[in-house]
Amino acid sequence: MITLSLIGIGTGNPEHLTLAAIREINKADLILIPRKGKAKADLATLRETLCSDVLTNPDTKIASFDMPVRDAANADYQQGVEDWHDAIAAVWSRTIQAHLPQGGRVALLVWGDPALYDSTLRIAARLLPPEQIRSIPGIMSINALTAAHTIALNEIGAAFMVTTGRHLREKGWPDGVDTLIILLDGECSFSHIDPTDVQIYWGAYVGMPEQILLSGPLSDMADEIMQTRAQARKEHGWIMDIYLLRRPIVAHDKKAVS
Q1: Would you list the domain boundaries of the chain?
Q2: Over pLDDT 90: what percentage of the chain?
Q3: Most buried residue among 38, 84, 92, 133 by CB atoms closer than 10 A?
Q4: Which tens digits make up the pLDDT trace of 144-166?
Q5: Alpha helix locations (H) across the chain?
Q6: CA nearest 142: which of 127, 125, 154?
Q7: Which chain regions cross the lipid bilayer (predicted)?
Q8: Are 235 and 227 in contact (CB under 8 A)?
Q9: Domain 142-257 maps to which CATH number in 3.40.50.970, 3.30.950.10, 3.40.50.2300, 1.10.10.10?
Q10: What is the bridge-based pairing of β-strands 2-8 and 104-110?
């Protein structure tokens, strides 16, 4: 029988691993490492380095596989994602069968936490029933960002929202919240909103040696962040970034009253 553990590894910094994550890595018979092309070879290397830092079980195998690419040209976004997930599940299945034909414990290292804007749990459900899947929580990019900027995630007694760049662009700033956490934004969607009274706390490669942090009034920082982001992506071939947007509760209340 196959069991699959999805292990949250934070940003790939070994210091972000929990003891539960380290134990689960060392229980595995097979660890799967996705390859995402030459431009993102660093991501596979980071996972391999992390394993070398914490893996003490000499019998654990490590196997790489080529990650399928989503068809971004598909006009039906939802169907395109479903097809992509089917393709990933098929690759997982073939790789596991090749290396563990008799079954065993498989682990997949997941950036951040498997439960936050990540599809590994959905993909795993295509292969195995729930009782054969484990999810090991990891430090989320949200925690890493607020810690790096030494700010609180929420204002006193106030709500916050976690959403995507796509939603921010298409739907604007949601009513009723003054703090937004934006993930999965490849288009600098903060440039599509009114910057008045908005503070931005942006981070790329948060928690990694390459970490870049910028913050300040959105009206002052938008261009600098976009330029810095473009340069970092060019330099590394990939980028992982996240940002927090905050506007004063007073300003929001006045708008609501008017």
Answers
A1: 2-139, 142-257
A2: 76
A3: 92
A4: 999 999 999 999 999 999 999 99
A5: 19-27, 41-54, 77-99, 120-127, 141-149, 165-171, 218-236, 249-257
A6: 154
A7: none
A8: no
A9: 3.30.950.10
A10: parallel
30, with CB counted inside 10 A (0-12, 13-18, 19+), is buried
Backbone φ and ψ for 6, nearest 5 degrees, come out as -100, 110
pLDDT at 63 over 80: yes
* Model pTM score: 0.85
CA distance 102 to 213: 47
Joined together, the tokens standing for residue 74 give 């598909």
Amino acid at 8: G
196 CB-near residues (< 8 Å, 6+ apart): 219
Q: Which fold has domain 2-139?
A: Cobalt-precorrin-4 Transmethylase; domain 1 (3.40.1010)
What does the longest C-alpha to C-alpha distance in the chain come to? Answer: 67
